[in-house]
Amino acid sequence: MFQSDGTLLAGVAAGLLFAFEFVLIYGGLAHTNASRMSVFVYLAPPLTALGLHFFVAGERLRALQWGVAFLSEPLSARFAFAAALIAAGIALVNLRR
Predict the structure, then answer these.
(1) Can you give the C-alpha Rg of the chain in angstroms?
(2) Residues 18, 48: contact at Cβ < 8 Å?
(3) Domain extents for the chain?
(4) What is the rounded distance in angstroms from the CA atom of residue 46 to the CA atom of residue 35?
(5) What pTM, to 2 d.p., does this model score?
(6) How confident is residue 74, by pLDDT bands cut at 50, 70 and 90?
């Protein structure tokens, strides 16, 4: 456990980036309310998976992994359902025109 494996620098960098994320979140709360900020926080894992799928060649997700990525967060299932209802409403309004 305490043997050097060369990942100390990467671990420290990841920890600093994680801490900086919280600095940005708390700074963002000065400009928007907490409900909107929680949407950004809960969308981070699925959007990261989406970005990796398109920008990292060896990272391809199967359908089951996409489902887990989008539904693993507590609010993501409700958010996805609400987004689907909104999209359906927009589609119905545009069909009437």
Answers:
(1) 18
(2) no
(3) 33-96
(4) 18
(5) 0.51
(6) low
